[in-house]
């Protein structure tokens, strides 16, 4: 069985948290190097895992030769007792797969293969860690069609009309482009942790690379641009698509974290390791999770925040008073789905959640997520509904902000996005800060009032 040792508190990443440092790649690279050096030095001083493995080897070692003597009935009884004690004393098998000294210096997670009975020994040796079985993570699946089919699909790129881009109109982007907004997210790199991406015309030139998780190597290997489902291609189109995307000049590094819609906690940990180790990746978009509240995943979100990576995550598609980890952590921007009539989609998750003794509301905000048109692996287009359609719209806006303000910090980036939200006059557990709009700082000159005031109206002709 695979177990992960996850630090309950990470003093090293805490020491890096200042909240006033740039998200710019060169600045990020320096902080990454500092964390890796500090992590490896700390691991070198912590001999607990070596001690545990040493005790295991000692208990497993055969005893030396003994002088033989005639056996007696008492000896037979003693042997039976000894065999029973040996069974109880036999150490559980533990093998180390990854440690912060080498493979996981950014998350600080240790990955082990161990017998189930080893959990008690691990918890005793590491009271400052959570000992977590490698649980399953699932795609936050859209609510409509699950399979590629001609039913409901739209044709080629020429078939996409402005009327079908209600998600871009709703946030004010179409109007801003008509006014001369030239921002496209140029040269901004986004990590997409999803089902993969297909190389389709809508995304031509936008995919930096596609990687898929290698279970044996515990790393993400380069692979052809292939989507194991259709979801990743749809999400990528909403970020960087040339006709449907919010930031059509941005680039995407695809990490196939949930192949065929299913991954695991270790997939997530190594996706964060890979993405955060690349200073050019400034935003992560995630549409996967585990239903409910799981504190073991939160520390990785904290580290990403402190290394100046903005995490944008879908909150879930299970309706009111539900949520998913890691989308429900205060350190991320969790995104619910709004519709074209000015409401929150009925399937959008959200509600009150308690962290560190304080109550928080999820989602952080909502964005267009109902009947949103984007790309498919067959080169066509389709409208889909879900919070995983809404999250990439926020990711695209973040890319535009970084392009306009290269030295922006994660805290400032979050504040810019939240300040542009318009209340839908609903409870915070449904709408968060409200529905997102184009941040005013992206506009040239005074922002038009119709972009920043008033609730959204029904989608109509542009």
Give your account of this protein's structure:
This protein folds into 2 domains: 2-57 and 73-134, no CATH class; 138-452, Rossmann fold, CATH 3.40.50.200. It is 31% helix and 22% strand. The protein contains 14 helices and 21 strands. An 8-stranded mixed β-sheet has the order 9-8-10-7-12-14-16-19, sandwiched between helices. The radius of gyration is 25 Å and the shape is globular. Mean pLDDT is 85; it is low at 146-152 and 445-462.
Note the main attributes of this structure.
462 residues, alpha/beta, Rossmann fold, eight-stranded mixed sheet, four-stranded antiparallel sheet, 14 helices, 31% helix, globular
Outline:
Helices cover 31% and strands 22% of the residues. With 462 residues, the chain is α/β, with parallel strands linked by helices.
Task: Tell me the layout of helices and strands.
Blueprint: E1 2-7, H1 11-16, H2 25-45, H3 48-60, H4 73-89, E2 94-98, E3 110-114, H5 118-125, E4 129-133, E5 136-139, E6 153-154, H6 166-170, H7 173-178, E7 189-194, E8 207-214, E9 219-223, H8 231-240, E10 251-256, E11 262-264, H9 265-276, E12 281-286, E13 288-291, H10 298-306, E14 310-314, E15 324-325, E16 333-338, E17 351-355, E18 358-362, E19 365-368, E20 372-375, E21 381-384, H11 387-404, H12 410-419, H13 428-431, H14 449-452
Parallel strand pairs: 7-10, 7-12, 8-10, 12-14, 14-16, 16-19
Antiparallel strand pairs: 1-3, 1-4, 2-3, 5-11, 5-13, 6-21, 8-9, 13-15, 17-18, 20-21
Helix pairs in contact: 8-11, 11-12
């Amino acid at each position: 069985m695979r177990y992960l040792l996850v630090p309950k508190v990470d003093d090293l990443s805490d020491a890096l948290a200042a909240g006033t440092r740039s998200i710019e790649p060169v600045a990020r690279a320096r902080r990454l190097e500092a964390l890796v050096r500090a992590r490896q030095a700390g691991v070198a001083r912590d001999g607990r895992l070596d001690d545990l493995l040493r005790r295991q080897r000692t208990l497993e070692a055969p005893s030396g030769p003994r002088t033989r003597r005639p056996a007696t009935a008492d000896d037979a009884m003693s042997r039976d007792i000894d065999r029973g004690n040996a069974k109880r004393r036999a150490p559980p098998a533990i093998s180390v797969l990854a440690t912060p000294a080498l493979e996981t210096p950014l998350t600080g997670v240790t990955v082990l293969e161990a017998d189930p009975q080893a959990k008690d020994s691990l918890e005793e040796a590491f009271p400052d860690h959570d000992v977590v079985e490698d649980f399953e993570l699932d795609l936050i699946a859209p609510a409509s069609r699950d399979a590629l089919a001609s039913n409901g699909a739209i044709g080629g790129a020429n078939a996409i009309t402005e009327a079908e881009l209600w998600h871009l109109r709703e946030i004010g982007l179409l109007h801003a482009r008509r006014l001369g907004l030239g921002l496209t997210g140029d040269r901004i790199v986004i990590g997409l942790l999803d089902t993969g991406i297909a190389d389709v015309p809508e995304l031509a030139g936008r995919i930096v690379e596609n990687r898929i998780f290698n279970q044996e190597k515990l790393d993400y290997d380069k692979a052809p641009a292939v989507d194991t489902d259709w979801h990743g291609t749809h999400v990528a189109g909403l970020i960087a698509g040339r006709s449907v995307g919010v930031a059509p000049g941005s680039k995407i590094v695809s990490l196939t974290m949930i192949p065929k819609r299913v991954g695991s906690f270790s997939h997530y940990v190594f996706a964060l390791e890979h993405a955060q180790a690349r200073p050019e990746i400034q935003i992560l978009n995630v549409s996967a999770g585990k239903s409910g509240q799981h504190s073991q995943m939160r520390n990785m979100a904290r580290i990403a925040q402190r290394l100046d990576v903005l995490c944008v995550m879908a909150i879930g598609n299970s309706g009111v008073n539900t949520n998913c980890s890691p989308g429900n952590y205060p350190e991320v921007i969790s995104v619910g789905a709004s519709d074209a009539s000015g409401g929150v989609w009925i399937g959008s998750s959200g509600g009150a959640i308690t962290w560190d003794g304080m109550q928080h509301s999820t989602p952080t905000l909502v964005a267009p997520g109902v009947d949103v048109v984007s790309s498919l692996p067959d080169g066509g287009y389709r409208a889909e509904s879900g919070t995983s359609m809404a999250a990439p719209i926020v990711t695209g806006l973040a890319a535009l902000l970084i392009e306009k303000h290269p030295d922006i910090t994660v805290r400032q980036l979050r504040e810019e996005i939240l300040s542009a939200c318009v209340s839908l006059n609903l409870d915070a557990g449904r709408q968060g800060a409200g529905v997102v709009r184009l941040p005013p700082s992206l506009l040239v000159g005074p922002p038009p009032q119709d972009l920043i005031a008033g609730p959204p109206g029904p989608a109509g002709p542009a």
